[in-house]
Amino acid sequence: MPLTRLMIKNFKSIKHCDISLSELNVLIGENGTGKTNLLDAIDYFYRNLTNSDISLDVFDENNRFSNEVRIALTYDLSEFVKISKSNTEDSLDFNQEEPTEQSRYNGYYKEIISIASKSPNKKVCVELVQIKGRAIRWNYSYEERFIFKSLFPVFYIDTRNLDVTEWEHIWDILGDLAKVSNSERKNIAEKINGVLLDRSHETSKKLKIISDIFEKANVNVKPAMAKDFATLLAKTYFSGHNIQQKGRHLNYYSTGTNSVKYIELLLQSIDALSRIKMKEPLVLFDEPEISLHTSYLDELSEAIIGVNSKLSILVSTHSSRLTKNLITSSDRINLYNVKLIDKYSSIYRMKKFPLYSPTSKYRVADDHINAYFSKVNLFVEGETELELFSNPYLRILFPQLKRVDVFKAVSDKPVLNIMSPKLTNSQVPYICLIDVDKAISYDKNKKRFALKREYFPKNKNERFRYRNKHEHEPYLYFQRKRIDAMQNKLHVHYSLPFLSCSDPNYHAFISAVQQYLLAYNIFCLSTTIEGALINDVTMGFAFEFLKKRSQQDDFEKFNLYWDGLSKNKKINFLRILFNGKSDLLKSEKNLKSVDDNLKNILDKIGIGDKTSGWVSNYLDCFFQAVTQMGDSFSEKNFARYLEDESRKKKLLEVFEKNFFELYSLMEILCDIINKE
What we know:
This protein is an alpha/beta fold and 676 residues long. The protein is 46% helix and 14% strand.
């Protein structure tokens, strides 16, 4: 790898950055976190490497007393040393070039060897230091920096400020690629002159007129530099310089079409330059996905991945599609998440899939990668939870939910592995919402609970830091010991047919499990998501909700059975009718010894499939009833209703009373967002 390490101090929003680089490096993160600042730091380094382009806008944006900027790039010269040593052998004739040119190259090679010899591993760190009011200081001489710039040229492509119909920059690269030696240039010029000055051609007469004009004006044309001469030569070869696509001018095509073609041609040109010339370029892309359709993103990904290993590429992106394509197609990638913490950019290196879940990458979808770009992630089990947190009235009441991305992942471990900030080290705050039966189970025959290994491993190893000496909350160890003891000794009494339980020790056990898991970002419901909606407070509302959805005859039979139940049994019965589970985690299909009358009631009155849409309808009806808005109830009117702070406060109190578990979860999510 040409560029192996990047260190930045006090540059704009970057207080400190010290990262290792691979051949392909991808920076992701929200807008305004500082991804572009990182690329700008490299660009600023290069703008001043052999020229003077000093700016006062590069200093720490948050601390006016900070007066020093440092940018250091570490280069690997090992490949160039091999080339230089082979080319300084006495037997090499340098393609029969003139002695003066051979001597110049020989000195160039020796200088590379000399620079590399200062480091045992042939890696050299070039550092820029700028102090306010002073000139930039370097740790290498101008001549040495000129060599670094030649060996490791930089190409910065900012697609936001790119004119994709003007491709002159590509001609510059091609000119560098086609650059010829002095002797070869002299030979080519003589042959061209021989053709053009042949008096049998009309062109010869015209060129003579032009020459006379210059001579009379007493001016002359300065010979082009080697790179410019090669560019002119290439344009002459193609009989022009206006690049077209399929015979049409670039203005004919869309910005996206031109953009992807420009980047492809640019990358291929830089790639060819690195293969033929003694160069290992650095390519910076700032949001190359702008204006690109999905199919073009795939094409762009292939272009980036297809370059040879002599290039170092840094890509800043907001595209989950581009990120997915790159991380699943290349093992030579470093993925960095850039976050803004206390007004400073923090760069975190994310873990690669093979490090923790080798098979996960085969399940990656665009939606999964969206979790890397989120402000806050909420991972849930299924469609019911997705429907719940998508409810527009809930999102109006809790506007912070607009900054929370909800993903269905908890029940699919490979998918959760892909998105989990704990595994990927993405540093995105998150909460996993689970039903209690994910953490514990109940054996009716033994009348005992069991802790599930996924959340309570028997070997006491991680998943959740059991007995970790670095744990900030040491009570967790004793909480786990308490849970283990309760699980071994707790025998609860239950009531048939729904396995309902009013034993206070049971509820104490559930509460202990919830507190323990919450310390590890797991919000465990006391039963299920349906149980969070159907509880002893909302029982009356849920009863009326069922009544409105049922046939009169069917509901009368249900009501007759209902009247004979205790309050605890009524709650459990309702939960089962709403596709939830009872206290001891039994669903309708798990109920045994159920008579025909009860079976018929369950079939006729049950809410239907989990995806029937009842959750949204249930919440809509609840908010409509509480606000007493009647037929005028709508999202717009609901939002206006909440503009009155006293009304909003009262509605929040009502919501907390009726859905206390959901309200607790909302408080946690809001606290996380407010801290961000």
